[in-house]
Amino acid sequence: xxxxxxxxxxLVAPDVFPxxxxxxxxxxxxxxxxxxxxxxxxxxxPHVIIFDYDYIGSDIEKVLRRIKINRFYDKLxxxxxxxxxxxxxxxxxKALGVDHLFYQDDMAKLQKNxxxxxxxxxxxxxxxxxxxxxxx
Length: 136
Prior knowledge:
Structural class: alpha/beta
Strand content: 15-25%
Radius of gyration: 14 Å
Order of helices and strands: EEHEHHEHEHH
Number of helices: 6
């Protein structure tokens, strides 16, 4: 499970992606339509949004800019799942406001002992500890 502090999670991914993720998780809402992102954010008011970069593609820049401009979304954490790392794309996503990037290789390593959502939570917590230590 994603940490208990994240009681509302919005997952933007294709219908195939969350089949095993959403079996018994009531705190995760999945949407597949890109046009439904902002109505879902307004309705759910999630703590975390997880985007599948390979699914959204070129629309992610427009979506991230819209999220960062609106003060309603100030406390929203944004995560992005990618199949492969790319330095140029990753730095653009970080500049646009993505808090953490997950890669397919990272998920494969962590999935041996944990559930997928637990892996997201563990990677997110590790990155937050690293950011906190760097900022002090």
